[in-house]
Design a protein that fits this description.
heterodimer, A: 314 residues, mainly alpha, 15 helices, B: 308 residues, two-stranded antiparallel sheet
Chain lengths: 314, 308
C-alpha cells in the first residue's frame, strides 16, 4: 500500500523545489515548513498532494460514512454498504432500541462518567503528592504507577475476574455491578505520569506564597494547583474517556449476564442475533460511536497534543 | 522512566508516632492512598494471584491441587498455543511495521499549518478514537464475502472476483492485519508528526543550499531527527502487538479453523470457555514475562540511543 504513495512524491517534489529556487531568487525566504517541502502554489506537486489527501480520506474516513449510511438504510440486512443511504429509514434504530441498545448505552454512560470521575480524582491526588511533595519511597511509588501502565488488562483478565467476584479482605461481589468496571479503571498510570509532569512545572513561589497565607493541602490542590492544570486535566479527561469507552474485555468479564454489558460489547450480542440484520448492527455501531466522536471533535486539539506530549515524555 | 532502578530501601511510612514523622510526612501518603489501593486490589493482587494459580490445577469445589510446572509444559507443548505464538508474532510484527510506515507516510503528507490540512488530519485520526469493537463490526461488513460487500464491490469494479477475506484460513490473518494497520497508523501519525515539528528548519534550508536530493534530505535530516519518536512508536507497537486481543476477538473470534488464533484469545478460551484457570494463568504469565522483558530491553536500547 505504501510503495505507490512514496514513489511519485520523490520525483515531483524536487522539481517543484528547483523551480522555486531557480525562478525567484528567494524573495520570500524559501519555505521549508515540511519535510517534503510541500508548497501551496498550484502545480504538479500541489495536485498530487490533493490527490493523496483524498486517498487518505477515502481509506480512513469514508468507512465511517458507510456505517452512517448503512444504519439509515432500509433492509441493509444482507451485505450492501454504500456511502449514501438509499431508501432511508429510522427503522434500524427502532429495532436496535427493541433489542435493548439504549439500556446498554446507559450502562456505558454510567461507566464512562463514573469511571472518568473516579480516575481523574484518584490520579490528580496521586500526581499532586508525587509532584509537590518529597517523601521517602517516592521513586518506588512512581515505578508502581508506571507498572500499572505496563500491566495490560488482557494479561490479568482471568485472575481479575476472580477478584471481581470476591474482592480480597472485604469479600464483595462486584460482578454484575458497574463498580466492577469502574474501580479497576481508577488508577491509570498514564494520567498519573502526565499530571505529575505538568504539576512539577508550577513555580514554587506560587505555592510558597499560598503557604504563607495559611492555605492547607486540600485547598492548595483545589484552588491553586488545579486551576493551573486545566490543560493537562483536559487531556487526561479526553484520553481517559476514549480509553474507558474502548474497554471490551473488562465489561465482558465484570458482567454477570448480558444485560450488564456496555454498548460496545453488546454489538456482538446484536450481531449473533439471527433475527437482526446488518442495518441494525450498524445502527448500534453508530450509537456506540457517537459519544467518543463528539468528545473527540469538541476537544481534538488537546487530545492530539496530549498524545504527542505523553509519547515524547513517556 | 528514569526512576526505575534506583529504589532505595523501601521504608514503610506507617510508623506514625516516630519522632521525625510529623503531619507533613503523612500528607503525601493520604493523597496517594486511593490510587495505590485501587492499583493494589485490581492490578497487583490479580497479577500475583495469576502467578500463584498458574502452579495449580484449579478445581472450583474440590480445592486447588499443586501441580508445579505442569500447566506451563502443557501450554507450551499444546500445538494450538504453538500456532498462536506464530500468529501473534506475524500479526504483531506485520501490523506494527505496516502502521509505522503508513503513519510516517501520512505524517509527511499531512504535515503543515493550513486549515484544510487540519481538517484532513482530524478526519484521518478517526479510526484511533473509535472503540475497537465498533471498528471490528465495521470491518466485518466491509469484508462481506459476496460481491456486494463494500471492498468486494470495489474489487468487482476491476473484474476481480469476490474474496472470502475472513472465511479463508489463508487470508483471515492478513485481513486482520489490515484492520490493525488501519487502526494504528493514524495514531502513529500523530506521534511522528510531533517529532517532525521538532526538526530544525534551518537544517532543511542548509540541505537545500547544498543541493541535496529530497531522498537524501529525508534520509540524513528528517529520519535522524525523528528517531526518538520512532523509538516510542516502536515500543508501543511491540507491546500492543503481543497483547492483541480485542481486534481479533471481535473480528474473527480466532477462526476460521484457528487461523487467526493469537496468544490472548487462546488463553481467554482456555480460561473462560474451558474453565482451565490454571492453564490460562500460565499462558498469561508467559505473556507477562515476555512483555516485561521486551519493555526493559527496548528501554535499555532507547536510553543508550539517547546518550549517544
Amino acid at each position: 500500500m505504501s510503495a505507490p504513495v512514496i514513489e511519485p512524491v520523490r520525483t515531483t517534489a524536487p522539481k517543484a523545489k528547483a523551480r522555486r529556487s531557480g525562478k525567484t531568487q528567494r524573495t520570500t525566504p524559501a519555505r521549508f515548513d515540511t519535510a517534503l517541502g510541500w508548497n501551496d502554489r498550484p502545480g504538479a506537486a500541489w495536485a498530487l498532494r490533493i490527490l493523496l489527501c483524498a486517498t487518505a480520506l477515502g481509506i480512513f474516513a469514508a468507512p465511517f460514512l458507510a456505517i452512517l449510511s448503512g444504519a439509515f438504510t432500509r433492509n441493509a440486512s444482507g451485505s450492501s454498504l454504500s456511502f449514501l443511504p438509499h431508501d432511508s429509514t429510522l427503522l434500524n434504530f427502532t429495532v436496535a432500541g427493541e433489542r435493548g441498545i439504549w439500556d446498554y448505552f446507559s450502562n456505558s454512560l454510567v461507566i464512562a462518567g463514573g469511571g472518568l470521575l473516579l480516575q481523574l480524582v484518584v490520579c490528580t491526588l496521586a500526581a499532586y503528592a508525587l509532584a509537590r511533595h518529597r517523601f521517602r519511597g517516592q521513586a518506588l511509588i512512581l515505578t508502581l504507577f508506571m507498572l500499572t501502565m505496563m500491566l495490560p488488562e488482557e494479561v490479568i483478565a482471568i485472575p481479575l475476574s476472580l477478584v471481581l467476584g470476591d474482592v480480597p479482605v472485604v469479600h464483595l461481589d462486584l460482578k454484575g455491578t458497574v463498580w466492577g468496571v469502574i474501580l479497576p479503571l481508577g488508577a491509570w498510570g498514564f494520567s498519573v505520569m502526565m499530571l505529575t509532569e505538568f504539576m512539577k512545572d508550577i513555580p514554587d513561589e506560587i505555592e510558597e506564597a499560598a503557604r504563607l497565607d495559611g492555605v492547607g493541602e486540600l485547598r492548595m490542590l483545589w484552588q491553586i494547583v488545579l486551576p493551573l492544570c486545566k490543560p493537562a486535566l483536559g487531556v487526561a479527561g479526553v484520553l481517559g474517556f476514549i480509553m474507558i469507552w474502548d474497554q471490551y474485555l473488562l465489561p465482558l468479564i465484570a458482567a454477570k449476564d448480558p444485560t450488564d454489558y456496555t454498548v460496545t460489547v453488546a454489538l456482538s450480542v446484536l450481531r449473533t442475533d439471527p433475527e437482526v440484520g446488518s442495518g441494525v448492527v450498524l445502527a448500534g455501531a453508530v450509537i456506540a460511536l457517537l459519544p467518543s466522536l463528539i468528545v473527540y471533535l469538541l476537544l481534538q486539539r488537546s487530545l492530539v497534543t496530549g498524545i504527542a506530549a505523553g509519547a515524547t515524555k513517556g | 522512566m528514569t526512576a526505575t532502578v534506583t529504589t532505595p530501601a523501601v521504608t514503610t511510612p506507617v510508623t506514625r508516632r516516630g519522632r521525625g514523622l510529623t503531619k507533613k510526612s503523612v500528607v503525601p501518603w493520604l493523597f496517594l492512598a486511593p490510587g495505590l489501593l485501587l492499583a493494589l486490589v485490581f492490578k497487583f493482587w490479580p497479577m500475583a494471584k495469576g502467578v500463584w494459580l498458574s502452579f495449580f490445577d484449579v478445581r472450583p469445589f474440590l480445592g486447588d491441587k499443586w501441580t508445579g510446572l505442569d500447566n506451563y509444559t502443557r501450554v507450551l507443548t499444546d500445538h494450538r498455543f504453538q500456532d498462536a505464538i506464530g500468529h501473534t508474532l506475524l500479526l504483531g510484527i506485520g501490523q506494527s511495521l505496516g502502521a509505522i510506515v503508513l503513519g510516517f507516510v501520512l505524517a509527511l503528507l499531512l504535515e503543515g499549518q493550513a486549515r484544510s490540512l487540519k481538517i484532513v488530519r482530524t478526519a484521518v485520526f478517526l479510526p484511533a478514537v473509535t472503540a475497537t469493537a465498533v471498528v471490528g463490526e465495521l470491518w466485518r461488513l466491509m469484508y462481506y464475502p459476496t460481491s456486494d460487500g463494500l471492498i468486494n464491490s470495489g474489487l468487482d469494479f476491476f473484474g476481480l472476483g469476490p474474496v472470502q477475506f475472513l472465511d479463508n484460513p489463508d487470508l483471515a490473518l492478513w485481513s486482520t492485519m489490515a484492520m490493525g494497520i488501519w487502526i494504528w497508523a493514524p495514531y502513529n501519525m500523530v506521534i511522528i508528526m510531533a517529532g517532525l515539528a521538532g526538526v530544525d528548519r534551518s537544517l532543511y534550508e542548509a540541505a537545500a543550499m547544498d543541493g541535496v536530493s529530497l531522498r537524501q534530505r529525508l534520509r540524513y535530516v528528517t529520519l535522524p531527527a525523528i528517531r526518538p519518536a520512532l523509538g516510542i512508536v516502536l515500543t508501543l507497537a511491540a507491546i500492543r502487538g503481543l497483547r492483541v486481543f480485542t481486534e481479533v476477538y471481535v473480528l474473527t473470534g480466532g477462526g476460521p479453523a484457528g487461523s487467526t488464533e493469537v496468544w490472548m484469545t487462546r488463553a481467554y478460551t482456555l480460561g473462560f470457555t474451558r474453565n482451565d484457570i490454571g492453564g490460562a494463568s500460565a499462558a498469561s504469565v508467559v505473556l507477562l514475562c515476555v512483555t516485561l522483558l521486551l519493555t526493559v530491553t527496548v528501554n535499555h536500547f532507547r536510553k543508550r540511543g539517547d546518550v549517544r
